[in-house]
Give the backbone structure.
Amino acid sequence: MAASLHTSQLGSAFLGERAGICVSTVPVTRLGFRRKTVECKESRIGKQPIEVPSNVVITLEGQDMKVKGPLGELALSYPREITIDRQESIIKVSKAVETRRANQMHGLFRTLTSNMVVGVSKGFEKKLQLVGVGYRATVEGKELILSLGFSHPVKMTIPDDLKVKVEDNTRITVSGYDKSNIGQFAASIRKWRPPEPYKGKGVKYADEIIRRKEGKAGKKK
C-alpha cells in the first residue's frame, strides 16, 4: 500500500510540472479511530417501583424470589444482570451492570415481578367468545368441552391452578393467579378454531378485533 501511495504522489507531481501547476504533496500518516462509548438508557418500565399489598409475603434468597398471597404462591429466578431491592412495602428491580442484555432484562423482569404480586393478591382473567352457528362450550368437572364444527367434541383438561367459567354457552372466562398459564391455556383454546376473516367464525378473545375481508363478488351482468 505504501508503494502505491508513493507512486500516486510521484504521478501527481509529474502531471503538475507538465501543466505548469505547483502540486504540494502531503505524506500520509497512520489513521487513528476513536471508539465512542454508547450508554444504555434505563428502561421506563423497569425503573418504576412495585407496591406490595399487606396480604402478600415476599421471600428473597439471593437471586430467587417467592411471592405468597391469598390466591396462591409463585417463584421466580432472576439473572445475574438484575438485582432486587426491597424497601418496606416497595420492591425495586435494578440493573447490576450496564450492558445491552441487562437493559433488555430490566423491563421484562420488572413486569414479571409485578404480575406475580398482582396475581397472588387480585388474580387475572382472560375472556374468549365463540362465534358461529352451533358453536358452544360446557364445563364438566375438570374438563372443558368445545363443539366447534368438528365430527367430535374437543375435550381439554383444565389445569389445577386455573378456573374456567362458561356463560351463555359461548362466553369463556379463564381465571387464576399465574398470568402466563392463563394466557397459554386461553391461546390453546383459540388454536382449535382461530377466527376466519370473512364471516368472523371461530374462537376469539373478547377484546380482539378481527380484520374482515370482502368475499368474492359475483359476475356483473
Notes: The radius of gyration is 32 Å.
